Amino acid sequence: MNEHFAREEAKKKVRDFKIEKGRRIDLSMSQWLQAVEDRVIKVMDGKRVVQLSSMFDAP
């Protein structure tokens, strides 16, 4: 996993709101960007393997 693909995945997975005590709270743009950065760090620290493209895939 490289940082570009981790960032793209994080942008898809991180929602622009959170639920606290049964209430929906919308995140500001800066809060959402921070949540995306936190997710990128978590993904990059993980051991998950992702194929970048078929050209770089080893048999």
Tell me what you see in this structure.
It is built from 2 helices and 2 strands; from the N terminus they run H-E-E-H. It is α+β, with helices and mostly antiparallel strands and 59 residues long. It has one domain (3-46). A two-stranded antiparallel sheet has the order 1-2. Strand 1 and strand 2 (23-26) form a beta hairpin. The chain is elongated. The chain starts with a helix and ends in a 14-residue tail after the last helix. The model has no long low-confidence stretch (mean pLDDT 86).
Quick structural gist:
The chain is an alpha+beta fold and 59 residues long.
Q: Mean pLDDT across all residues, rounded?
A: 86
Helix content: 40-55%
Low-confidence stretches at least 5 residues in length (pLDDT < 50)?
none
Strands of the widest sheet, in order across it, are: 1-2
Assembly type:
single chain
Head-to-tail CA distance between termini:
18 Å
Number of strands: 2
Q: Describe the main β-sheet briefly.
A: 2 strands, antiparallel
Rg of Cα set: 15 Å
How large is the count of helical segments?
Answer: 2
Number of spatially distinct domains:
1
Order of helices and strands: HEEH
Proportion in β-strands: 5-15%
The structural class is: alpha+beta
Tell me the overall shape. Answer: elongated
